[in-house]
Write a structure and sequence with these properties.
The chain is mainly α. It is built from seven helices and no strands. Helix 1 packs across helix 4 and helix 2 crosses helix 3. Pfam families: HTH_19. This is Helix-turn-helix domain-containing protein.
Length: 104
């Protein structure tokens, strides 16, 4: 499970999370700090939420049965683990040995 997996699944479930809480699109977009247009695009699967929005959703709706059904009970802990794990895994550089040796 990685950041992209979380983004995809939270984006796909956003409308269900909103409806579960009984919020209108206007209310939900205001709570998340995104435009209604962006929310509609995500709900219609024309766009995905960005990582910051996903973190906000998981923090603000940590008690959502919809989120629990996908990620288990401690959604926010999962988000924290993934976020911190990315910092600990620096990108590996593919160095061509010949190009390094050839310079010297």
């Amino acid at each position: 499970m990685d950041q992209n997996f979380i983004i995809v699944h939270v984006s796909e479930k956003l409308k269900l999370i909103r409806v579960e809480r009984g919020y209108t699109q206007e209310m939900m977009s205001s709570i998340l700090g995104i435009s209604k247009k962006t929310l509609v695009q995500i709900e219609k699967k024309r766009a995905r939420a960005n990582w910051t929005t996903v973190i906000a959703i998981c923090a603000l709706f940590n008690d959502s049965d919809v989120l629990h059904s996908v990620f288990g009970r401690d959604v926010f802990q999962l988000i924290k683990t993934i976020a911190h794990h990315q910092l600990e895994q620096p990108e590996k550089k593919d160095l061509n040995r010949e190009s390094i040796v050839g310079k010297y």
